[in-house]
Design goal:
Strand content: under 5%
Number of domains: 1
Order of helices and strands: HHHHHHH
Largest sheet: none
Low-confidence stretches: 3-32
Structural class: mainly alpha
Radius of gyration: 22 Å
Helix content: 25-40%
Shape: globular
Length: 241
């Protein structure tokens, strides 16, 4: 083969590769995630194991799929649902020997009560898992209503609790609205951010993108006067604003 023909063949192959890549990206943008040959197997698995319909409008499908893989294999819903009794539908509880079916009406809606922090007399704020589902009026719907990706990044990397739902008790006075020293009310308690902080930047971005794609839930918090009295009620129209 002549050098000229060799150069033409190489150029043709390169052009074909670019066209194929463009088709794959276009397919991903159209939400055809099941037909895209993603190089990261976690993305394909993530779409397969997502227990709820996903809204891919305006989102990066590859990140959503990867985020699903991380969220659902790390068991985030174990803590960010209302609790073990309602995490699965009755006919789909794997602990009863049945095929697993997650209860979509509780998925990532928060509300699990982890109780006080082992303080004598239970004089400590109860730690309640937060609602992680999105709402129409903000970036992700995470508590506080303004959790941008930059704040989400800081939450996972440093454990920062921007809502300060359980401040540190002061003056030696313990009550159900605060947590006693040495617990730090500026940091999330119970939530295993010291482990999650080791995720890569791309993995954290993927988790955030996935949380934007799941259906909005009103939340599963106990009613006023319950153990979650330190958790402010969510707007009644949270998912329809």
């Amino acid at each position: 083969m002549s050098p000229a023909k060799s150069r033409i063949t190489a150029a043709t192959l390169a052009s074909a590769a670019l066209i194929l890549l463009g088709m794959m990206v276009a397919s991903a943008g159209n939400g055809a995630q099941g037909q895209v040959a993603y190089s990261d197997a976690r993305i394909r698995i993530g779409f397969a194991i997502a227990p709820v319909p996903l809204n891919l409008d305006g989102k990066n499908p590859a990140l959503v799929g990867l985020g699903s893989y991380i969220v659902n294999t790390e068991g985030c819903n174990d803590c960010h649902s209302a609790g073990p009794a309602t995490e699965y539908v009755p006919s789909g509880n794997p602990y009863f020997g049945r095929p697993k079916q997650v209860n979509a009406s509780k998925y990532l809606g928060g509300g699990r009560d982890f109780g006080p922090l082992g303080v004598p007399g239970n004089l400590s704020a109860h730690i309640i898992s937060r609602n992680l589902t999105p709402a129409p009026d903000n970036e992700t719907g995470l508590p506080g209503g303004d959790i941008t990706y930059e704040k989400f990044f800081q939450i996972i990397r440093d454990g920062t609790d921007f809502d300060h739902l359980h401040p540190t008790c002061t003056g030696g006075v313990l009550n159900s609205g605060c947590i006693p020293p040495p617990f730090d009310g500026n940091l999330l308690q119970v939530m295993p951010w010291p482990n999650f902080k080791n995720f890569t930047d791309r993995e954290l971005r993927a988790v955030y993108e996935y949380l934007r794609a799941v259906p909005c839930l009103q939340g599963n918090y106990p009613g006023p006067g319950g153990a979650a009295a330190n958790i402010p009620p969510e707007p009644a129209d949270r998912c329809t604003q």
